[in-house]
Amino acid sequence: MTDFTLTTDADGVATITWDVPGKSMNVMSLAGFAELNGLMDQALADAGVKGIILTSGKKDFAGGMDLNVIAKMKDDGGAQGIFDGVMMMHGVMRKIERAGMDAKTLKGGKPVVAALPGTALGIGLELPLSCHRIIAADNPKAKIGLPEIMVGIFPGAGGTTRLVRKLGAMIAAPFLLEGKLSDPKAAKLAGIVDEVVAPEDLLARAKEWILAAKDTDLVKPWDQKGYKMPGGAPYHPAGFMTFVGASAMVHGKTMGVYPAAKALLSAVYEGALVPFDTALKIEARWFTSVLMNPSSGAMIRSLFINKEALDKGAVRPEAPDQSVQKVGIIGAGMMGAGIAYVSANAGIEVVLIDAAQEAADKGKGYSEGLLDKGMQRKKVTAEKKAEVLARITATTDYAALAGCDLIVEAVFEDMAVKADVTRKVEEAVGPDCIFATNTSTLPISDLARASQRPDQFIGIHFFSPVDKMMLVEIIRGQQTGDRAVAKALDFVRQIRKTPIVVNDARFFYANRCIIPYINEGIRMVAEGVEPALIENAAKLVGMPLGPLQLVDETSIDLGVKIAKATRAAMGDAYPDGAVDKVLFAMADQGRLGKKANAGFYAYDAAGKRLGLWDGLAAAWPAAKAQPDLAEVQHRLLFAQVLEAVRALEDGVLMDIREGDVGAILGWGFAPWSGGPLSWLDMIGAPRAVEICDALAETHGARFAAPALLRDMSAKGQQFYTRFAPQPKAA
Ligand code: NAD
C-alpha cells in the first residue's frame, strides 16, 4: 500500500501527493507517517530538489488521523506507546519545519508548501501547520480545522502548540476548544491558512512561492530570536487576562467533566512558558494523559468508531439498495415540516400532505424559512433554495402519493386518526411502498393493525427539531420485515443522520430513558430538594439540561398527557403519583413551560429564561436537610442508565453500541462518559450494584439493580465484553 508518492519536475520542485488507495478521503495511519517521513528524507537529501509541495490526489486534503489507530496504540503500548508514537510524529513534522536549514544561521532550508485542494481536518491541518506556507484552494465546501475536542481528545500532533503560537491563545481558542471549522476564506481571515487561490491555480501558485522563497520566509516566528506570542504569554498582563478568561470559560462550558478541555488548556498554558520543542513534549504528555483517561476512550468509541459503524449500516439486514426516491409525508405540523425539509435537502422528492391546503403550505413554508436563514448566513445559494423548494409538493390530495416508495406519517398522536391515514395512504400507493409512523408513544405493532401489509409497516422516530437532532430511532414492530428496516436505514443514511434500530416497547428507547430522568428531578422538587441543587447536579455531571429545564423545553402539558396515558396503561402498578402532583399543579396554573413563558423557570416577555421560578419554594418548601451532591447525581444518572440496562435486558436494545450512541445523540446523555453502558463499564458493575442497593433502600424499588447487572457484577463482566458487537460478515 502506498499512501504517498513523490515526483520531481524539471524545475526541481518535488511534489509529495497523499492519496490513500481505496478511500474517498485521506486518513493518516502510522504506516502512512513512516512513508511520508521516508519521502521527506529523500526530497530533502536530493540536491536537485529546490522545494517541496505537499498535496493530495483527492478532492480533499485529509479527514484526520485514523482514530482506530489511536485506539490501537493505546491497547498495544499503553501510555509509553502513545507517547512514543506522538513524539515520532513530532519528529517528522519538526523535520519538515526545519527543512534542512542550518540550526544556527537558520539558512539553507528547502521551502515546503502545503497545497490544500479541499477539506483539511485534524492531522490534515496539523501537518500543513508545520509547513512554511499553507495555500488553500477557494473551495467553499471545504472545511478546515481541528475538531479533535468533539470526540474527547485535543490536537496532539503539534496542532495545539503551533496554532497558539501562530494566532495567539485568544484567537486560537474557538478552533481548539470548540473544534470550530472554517471554509478556506474564513480560515485565511483567521490567519490559519496563508493564502487562498482559485482551485486551478493551486499547484502553480505553490510552485511559484517555492521558487521565490527566501531563507527568512522559511523560519517560523517561534524559531526566530525574540519571538513573542501574539496577544501575550501568560506572564504578560494581556496574556494573563486571556488565560484567566479562557480557564473560566472552559470550566463554565465543560463543568470540569471533559478531561480533554482541561488538558488542552494546560498544554497551552505550560507550553507558552517554555521553548517550542519543550512545548511539543508537554503537549505530547497531556495528549497521552487524555488518551489514558477512560473518558476519551469511551468518547472515541461511541462518537467516532461506533457512530460511524451505525452510519454505515452496521445493523442493516441484507436487502438490495432501498434508497428513497419519493417520500410522502402525512401531517405538515412541526415534525412533518421538519422531515420534509431534511428529505428535500437530501435530494429526495417530497409530497407533503395535510388535511387543509393552508396547513400543507405552512409546512412547506418552514423549509423556505430555514433556507432563507441559510442564505442570510451565506450557506445556501438562491439556486439551491429554489431546487430544494421545487422538490416539495404541498397538497391535500392523496393521489399525489402515487410513485412514493416511502411514507412517513406525522399526524396527531391518536390511534384512530393514524389508522384512518394508514388506510387512505395504502389505497393511493403501490404495493411495495414502506409505511413509517413517527409516533412517539403508540406501539408500532398496534398501529400496524390498520395496515394491509404489516411487514412493510415500521416506526421511524425523529427528534425535535428535526433539522438539528442527529438521531433517528427505527422501531421494528412484531411483524416488521427486513426490507422495511433496510428502507428506513437507507433513508436515514440519505438524510445524513445516525440510526438506531430497536424493538417495539413503551416509549421505545430514548424516551424510555429520558422520562425517568425528568421524573426524578420533579420528584425531588416534591421532596423539598432545592431546585437549584437538582439542576446544577445534572449539569455538573455533564447533562446539557437539568431535568426541570428539559421539561420546560418539551412542555409540561406533554408531560401531563404522557403521565395520564402511562397511568391508564399501567393501572395500579403506576409508580409516579408523587411526580404527577407537581406536574399537574404546574399545568393547572398555566405554567406549561417555555412555550407559555412560565414553567419551573421564569421567563421574560421575549421568552428569555431568567432563573428558577421563585413560586416553587412556596408550593414545595425546601427541606431543612438537603442531600449531598453525589446522591442527587446518582439519582439522576441511575434513573436513566437503569432504563438503558432494562431495555437491553428486555431485548428492546439489540446492540450496546446503539444504546450508547443513541443516548448521546438522542438526549445528550453526559457525552464525556461515552453513553450509559460505557459509563457503567467505567465504574464497574459491582460499584453500580452497590449504588443501586443504597438508592433502592432510601428511595424505592425503581432503583433496584436489574438481574443483568447483578449477574455481570458476580461474573466480573463489562457490557463491552459480554455484549461485544460481532463484526458483520464481509
Ligand atoms: P403537530 O400537531 O404539530 O402536527 C400534526 C399535523 O398533522 C397537523 O398539521 C395536522 O393538521 C395534521 N393532521 C392531523 N390529522 C390529519 C389527517 N387526518 N390527515 C392529514 N393531516 C393531518 O404535531 P407534531 O408535533 O408534528 O407531531 C406529529 C407526530 O409526531 C405525532 O405522532 C407525535 O407524537 C410525533 N412526534 C412528535 C415529536 C415532538 O417533539 N413534537 C417528536 C417525535 C415524534
Fold and architecture overview:
- The protein is an alpha/beta fold and 730 residues long.
- The protein folds into three domains: 4-292, 2-enoyl-CoA Hydratase, Chain A, domain 1, CATH 3.90.226; 326-506, NAD(P)-binding Rossmann-like Domain (Rossmann fold); 511-722, N-(1-d-carboxylethyl)-l-norvaline Dehydrogenase, domain 2, CATH 1.10.1040.50.
- Helix content is 50%, strand content 12%.
- It contains 29 helices and 21 strands.
- The strands form five sheets. An eight-stranded mixed sheet has the order 14-13-12-15-16-17-18-19, sandwiched between helices. A six-stranded mixed sheet has the order 1-2-4-6-8-11, sandwiched between helices. Strands 7-9-10 form a three-stranded mixed sheet.
- Strand 15, helix 15 (415-428) and strand 16 (434-437) form a beta-alpha-beta unit.
- The protein is globular, with a radius of gyration of 28 Å.
- The mean pLDDT is 95.
- Bound molecules: nicotinamide-adenine-dinucleotide.
- The site of nicotinamide-adenine-dinucleotide has 23 residues, from helix 12, helix 15 and strand 17.
- GO terms for molecular function: enoyl-CoA hydratase activity; long-chain (3S)-3-hydroxyacyl-CoA dehydrogenase (NAD+) activity; NAD+ binding.
Strand count, sense and barrel status of the largest sheet are: 8 strands, mixed
Total domains, how many? 3
- Second CATH tier, the architecture of the largest domain: Alpha-Beta Complex
Which ligands accompany this protein? nicotinamide-adenine-dinucleotide
Query: What integer value in Å does the Rg equal?
Result: 28 Å
